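Sharing in case it's useful to others searching the archive later.

Someone asked me privately for the predicted structure of 23S rRNA (Guanosine2251-2'-O)-methyltransferase, so I'm posting the question and my answer publicly. Question first, with the sequence:
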Amino acid sequence: MAGNSQRRGAVRKSNKKDAGGSGGQKRGLRGKGPTPKAEDRVYHKAYKQAQQKRRRDQGRHEKVSDGTELVVGRNPVVECLHAKVPGSTLFVALGTDNDERLQEAVRIANDRAIPIREVPRHELDRMTGNSLHQGIGLQIPPYKYMAVEDLLEKVVDSGEPGLIVCLDNITDPRNLGAVIRSAAAFGGHGVVIPERRSAAVTGVTWRTSAGTAARLPVARATNMVRSLKQFQKAGYQVVGLDAGGEHTLDTYDGTTPTVVVVGSEGKGLSRLVRETCDTIMSIPMAGWVESLNASVAAGVTLSEFARQRRAAASK
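And my answer, the predicted structure tokens:
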């Protein structure tokens, strides 16, 4: 039979193609290095627990279904209470070890008439999504932002030349809290943040602002460029902080109604925001220093404008 002959010299034919092997050479297995730690593997349960612990240690809070937020951990809760964050309820898990920090949290909550609720530990686990809350959580209601139009009216009612800070590309709530604190310290009238891709007023922001977020209004802009143009129509000079500006802090007159626009340390001002500014101003500093943190740059500028306004008022 063709192709199946037993005679000498017969060749069995095959339809299979040559797979192009390794030429008879065996390949050694390549090592992938040491196995990463469990908390470094994104699919591992330990990774999620480590992330949750990191958020707790940083004082971050968990979203609750009704829009409120829950700050967990003994130190973060006590710090929020000292900063006069408007907590609505203090939750304490049943059976939690009673130490000085817990006693301090309960005492401050009682002094501020914040309701205290004891709940089963599994209930607090469910509320936070983990068991790393240290048996305590402070519920914070959603922050009530002001409309940009209402902020403009509030400044007019004050009878003072307005001083507003607008933040562009600022995503760290600590930076936002520090800017709010500086604005309050140096006579600012409010802070404006974008509605999207921006840090919001959270428990971390409250703590960093040292409670000044309770008195200095924060407005949310659906479109930052449009809001800047609103300020310009109302007679404000819009000043963007960025390196290489045509003005420096030493030469700029900040006694008139002014909006100071601060970008992130990495990205700076976005293109459209920069083009909308009336002036780009830089802060003089040592040549080997590339840039300042956003909240530091805002604080330096506001301090100088406050000095100029005090000097003008004394004349």
